[in-house]
Amino acid sequence: MRDTTAAGLEATIRTYFDACNEADAGKIMSCMEPDAVHYFPAGAPQGTFFGAKAIAEGWLRAVANLGSVWTIDRVIVDERKLEAVIEWTHFKPKQGIYLRGDEWYIFSKAGLIREIRAYYACPAAIPARTHELGDVPYAERGYPFKPPVVKR
Description:
Blueprint: H1 6-22, H2 25-30, E1 32-39, E2 49-50, H3 52-66, E3 69-78, E4 83-92, E5 97-107, E6 113-120
Parallel strand pairs: 1-6
Antiparallel strand pairs: 1-2, 3-4, 4-5, 5-6
């Protein structure tokens, strides 16, 4: 059981990022439920990470292959809902680039990460297409698929 106060949830995210930067698989997994899932934009080369072990292995590969280093740039936590959102930067020194984005975190009642949804800063696709995360069950969660009727 981890601390589920706002400060505790933020500390879990910061511990997770420290673990990613340290390439410490055990420490990464200690922040998560075993069946945690990490979603990425549809078409992302790594695909979705299903399970704490897959999440840890994915970030260890990023460190080995790209020299990855991450920073947390902003954090907002909703303690009551056990949710948080962060803004981050992912530096890829071996490629000489970095990428920025946001992640939405959902925690279990035990204060462990159950779900991460990553959103990247990216240019509009040409030709135009729908942008959403791969594998997220949007329909099951009640997300809209058509714009609401608005009076203009």
